[in-house]
Write a structure and sequence with these properties.
This protein has about 375 residues and is an alpha/beta fold. Helices cover about 40% and strands about 15% of the residues. It is globular.
Length: about 375
């Protein structure tokens, strides 16, 4: 009798812990964050939540707040009046101006590096130095955690108004996923379910994940796996994805976004370059899909391999890479300032080598 009562009390206590966990996760949803967000743009050191504001388009969800002057991830961060992490620029292109629009997530945004140190800024400076007879307007629309559907929608909503001559699309392994913090709020007071059982069912579901299932949905929660890949992710319970966002995740929406980008490039007459910094996890398949649609594909893995071989005298490994100066630090595996320079230089070289720069110079004659 006493033993049975003790077991019941223990289970009730554990159930209470898991309900408290659900309440905490609700606190970190995007809607919850926006509800707590001050109206005035933040100053000083901030969290990611403080950098963003809602976007009414369900394919974009959130965007960077305009006119930020703050510090994020240990680095200076400013945004212009349009909410882009870059200086102000003329909205109307002067004669002789080549316009390059960047679509990206945290890498193109420059997570962990200061203003102007991201590879897109490096590219812009190299283009201006090599062809000063043109003006180069490089517009960076990237925001952390954007996937390819969101990036293409950002081009439609924000980028096309600048009449781009070239669009640079950044690709990373999380580009089949939803942006961070998107999840369904759960009612911790719901007595019709067991949060303990739900948790273990979610764990079992993660263990059962397969490549076939990944073809349907991509990750919302992103636990890392202890196998030989890099930042591997697994899919989770589709019920965790709000219905209005389900068309943003998985391979089919990814393919549709690339098809839409292809159609936009034909209609508006711009070239498309797709760039990735490492060949890991799903990146290869994504780049292959881009190549099949006629996009120029640039992978800068060779630059990383060559740097590691030169400095350490050994081939690339994830362990060596994550402990090297190529990443911000072992806790923040985004590219460092050093790697952003490598990416920007390689991208500029590929644009020249493949004749893309020549096409742009032919399309945009020098100004008066």
């Amino acid at each position: 009798m006493i033993l049975g009562l003790s077991v019941l009390l223990s289970l009730a206590a554990v159930e209470g812990v898991f309900r408290f966990r659900a309440w905490q996760l609700n606190y970190d949803t995007l809607d919850g964050a926006f509800a707590r967000q001050p109206a005035v743009s933040p100053r000083g050191r901030v969290r990611f939540f403080d950098l963003i504001q809602p976007n009414p388009n369900d394919k974009i969800i959130y965007e960077l707040r305009p006119n930020l002057k703050t510090e994020y991830s240990g680095c200076t961060l400013t945004t212009n009046s349009l909410g882009f992490r870059m200086p102000e620029f003329p909205l109307e292109a002067a004669p002789g101006t080549v316009t390059v629009v960047g679509l990206g997530g945290s890498i193109m945004f420059g997570h962990g590096v200061a203003d102007g140190e991201d590879f897109f800024s490096v590219l812009g400076r190299l283009l201006a130095e090599s062809h000063p007879e043109r003006s180069w307007r490089c517009i960076n629309t990237a925001a952390p955690s954007y996937n390819v559907v969101t990036k293409v929608e950002t081009l439609k909503e924000k980028g096309l108004q600048f009449d781009p001559d070239l669009v640079v699309l950044g690709i990373a392994s999380n580009n089949l996923d939803l942006p961070n913090y998107i999840r369904v709020e759960e009612n911790p007071y719901d007595l019709g379910r067991s949060f303990i059982l739900d948790y273990f069912e979610e764990l079992r579901g993660q263990e059962r994940e397969s490549e076939a299932r990944f073809a349907q949905l991509a990750a919302v929660d992103k636990p890392k796996l202890s196998w030989g890949s890099f930042n591997a992710v697994v899919t989770t319970d589709p019920a965790k994805i709000p219905p209005r966002y389900r068309d943003l995740v998985g391979w089919d929406p990814f393919y549709r976004a690339l098809d839409e980008l292809k159609q936009l490039s034909l209609e508006h007459g711009f070239e498309v370059v797709v760039v990735a910094h490492l060949d890991y996890d799903l990146v290869g398949a994504m780049l292959e899909a881009a190549s099949q649609r006629g996009f120029h594909v640039v992978l800068t893995q060779d630059e990383v391999d060559a740097w590691i071989q030169k400095v350490y005298g050994e081939p690339f490994t994830i362990e060596r890479y994550t402990q090297s100066p190529l990443v911000v630090n072992p806790e923040n595996l985004h590219p460092s300032v050093l790697q952003h320079k490598l990416i920007g230089r390689r991208l500029a070289y590929e644009l020249w080598q493949r004749g893309i720069i020549g096409l742009l110079l032919e399309k945009v004659p020098p100004g008066p």
